[in-house]
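Supplementary Methods S3. Input chains for the assembly prediction are listed below.
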Amino acid sequence: MRLRRLELADIRSYDRVAVDLGPGVTILVGQNAQGKTNLLEAVQRAATGSSHRVAGDGPLVRFGTEIGIIRCEVVTDEGRRRTLDLEIGTGRRTRTRVDGQDVQRAAQAAGVLRVVLFAPEDVAIVRGDPSERRRFLDDVLAQRRPAFAAARSEHDRALRQRNQLLKQIRGLTGSSRDAAMSSLDVWTEQLITHGTQIIAARIAAIRTLAGPVDRFYRDLADRPEPIGLTYRCSAGDDVDGRLDPASSGGSTMVPETAPIAQAMRRTFAARQREETARGLTLVGPHRDDLDLTIGELPARGYSSHGEAWSLALALKLATYEVLAEVGDRPIVLLDDVFAELDTTRRQRLAAACAGFDQVLVTAAVEADVPLEGAKIDVELLDGRTRLRPRDLGAPPAATDGSVAS
Amino acid sequence: MYEGAVQDLIDELGRLPGVGPKSAQRIAFHLLQTENTDAQRLADAITTVKATIRFCTRCWNIAEAEECRICRDTRRDGSVLCVVEEPRDVVAIERTREFQGRYHVLGGAISPIDGIGPDDLHLKELVARLDAEPVDELILAMNPNVEGEATASYLSRLLAPLGVRVTRLASGLPVGGDLDYADEVTLGRAFSGRRDIP
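Predicted C-alpha cells for the full assembly:
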C-alpha cells in the first residue's frame, strides 16, 4: 500500500501541514529537533494504535492545544482509495474514522494503514531485556492477526488476578490458605488457555521470520554469519521453540497447542512452591524470550555495535515479509537509520529499500542516504515545523563551474 | 462549594455509580426546584427499599418477602437451576421468557484483585440446595470474561462429584446482526462452538 497524502493539525511540532507523497522513496531532510521523527511517529500511531516513543496519546497533541488531527489518505495494493482520520484529544478518548465512518473500537481501524518502522531505539530488541523482544513479536502479531491482541489482553487480565491471589496466599496460613489455594487452579487454567495461544502464535511468527532475517542480515552485515532465532519458553524448551527446518516446511507454521498446554501444566505443578513463596506467576508467555544468535554466539551479550544494528534492522525488515504474507504490503519508515551505518552498509540497505513499495526516510545529512527519491526539507520556524517538498524536475544546485570542459 | 445542605446532597449523589460531579450538581438543583411531594416520593422510595427489600433466603435474588417471586412461583421448574453473578442478570434472563427454571445468584465472580474469593460467593448455599432440592441440571450463566470463566470453571470442579449435569451458556454471534460486524474474538468463539444443523 501507499500513503498518498498526510495531513497533520496540532500534532507535536506541526500546527498545520499537508503533504503529498509519491511511490518509492521519500527522504525527509532536516537538522535534528526540527520535527522529522514527529511525522513518522504520527504515521506509526495512525497505523498501529500506539506511538513508539510514548505510552499515551496525550503528548502527541501540540503543546498548548487541545485537539490534534492526523489524516491519512491511503491507496491499497488493489488501487482502492481509503482514508484514516484520527482526532486526538488531551483529556478524552481518541476518535477514529475509517473511510469517513466513525469506528467504535480501535481494532476496526487496524490494517487500514500498515507500517514497519525502524528507529534507533530498536537496537534494544537485540541488546535489551527480554521484554523488548516479547514486545517486538507481539507488535508484529497484533498487526498481522487482530485476534492476537484480544488473546493478549485476556491473558494479562488473568495474570493480574493470579498474581494477586498468589500474594494473598503468601500471607495466609491454615484453612484460609487451603481455601485460597483451591481457587488457584482455575486461574492457572485460564492462563494456560490464553497463554498457549500466545506462545503458539509467537512460535509461528519466529518460524516465518527466520528465513527473511537471515537473508537481510547477510545483506547488511560485513561477516555474513547465520542468524538463529529460538523461542525460549518458561514452560520448558520442549514446546518446540527450536527451528527445525524439517518440520517447518509447508503452510502449517502454527504449532499444535496441546503439547504447549501440557508443558505449561507440568511446569506450573513443578514450580508451585516457588510461585506461592514469591507471590508471582513464573510460567507463561510473560516470562518467555526470543533467543537471538549470530553464528554460535548469543547476540545480546556478544554482538558488536554494528552487528547489533544490522540484526535489529534485519528483524524489522523481515517483519515486512511477515505482514505482506496476508493483506497489503506495508509502508517502511526508517527513522535516522543511515547515519548509524558505514558506507557499505548504507549501500546495502539502499538496495534492500528498492524492494519496498513506499519508504519514508529521515536524515539529518542528505549525503548519508544513497537513495534516489523525492526530497522534502523539514524546518522548524517560530516553533512550528514547515515541510517544503523540492521540485522533482528542478535542476541540480549550481556548481562552481570547475566541472565544465 | 454551596451552602451546607445543598453541598451534602451533591456529595451524596456524587457517590452513586455513574454519577459524576457535574451530574450530581444538576440532579441536586433539579430536586431543589421540584415540588415538595415529588422530592418526598423519591425520599420515601429510597427509605422503603432499604427497609423492606432483602435477599431471597433460597436463591439470593432480590426479594420483598422471605423468598423471591420466582422461588415462590410453583409453576417454575425446580429441576433446572440457572446460576448467575448478580440479581440484574436474573432480570436479563427473565426478559427472554425462555427460561422456566429457577435461579441461584452468586453475588459476584471470583476476582482476587477485588478481594473476592470463592468464600465470598453464595456457593455453600448452592451446594446445600442441590442436596435439598431435586435439581437435574445447572446452567452456568456467568459473564463471558476472564473472571466469569474462572468462576464457572471453579463451580464445575466443585460440583463434579455431586453428579449433577452442568452446562455453560454458549457465546457466539448476536442475532439479527451482520457477520462482518462481529469482532474477531466473538467470531472465533462462534466457530469453536459451532453445531450440526438438526
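The mean pLDDT of chain B is 90. The two ends of chain B are 66 Å apart (CA to CA).
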